[in-house]
Amino acid sequence: MQAIPAPTTVLYDGSCPICSREIKQYKKGDFRGEICWLDVSGPTFIAPPGHNKEALMKRFHVITAKGSIVSGAAAFVHLWEQLPGWKNLARLGRLPGMLNLMEFGYETFLRFRPKLQKLFS
Description:
This protein is α+β, with helices and mostly antiparallel strands. The chain has helices at 17-28, 53-58, 73-82, 87-93, 98-120; strands at 8-12, 35-39, 61-63, 69-71. The chain has one domain. A hairpin with a 5-residue loop joins strand 3 (61-63) and strand 4 (69-71).
């Protein structure tokens, strides 16, 4: 496994044009460079124990400072909590029931992602 040098490590699919654009926006908010950004699609990426590259490419994942891996809507909210310009959105994501609603939306997006990727390629 690669060393986790930051409190938060983001695992994203850099081969996805939609994902890459979104990550680019998040990186702009990482003013202090405290987040580690790992492109799962890269040839040198090594998946953490118990995970495989293919599964990690299908969903957005974040490794927390404590070493736990969260995915989907929970991963987005965790990342937003780390970025100064996104903290209000993270607070909304922590409201009762909101994470479930966001996860439903994310799962819906994932079903259409392959077709949407073609539009952004």
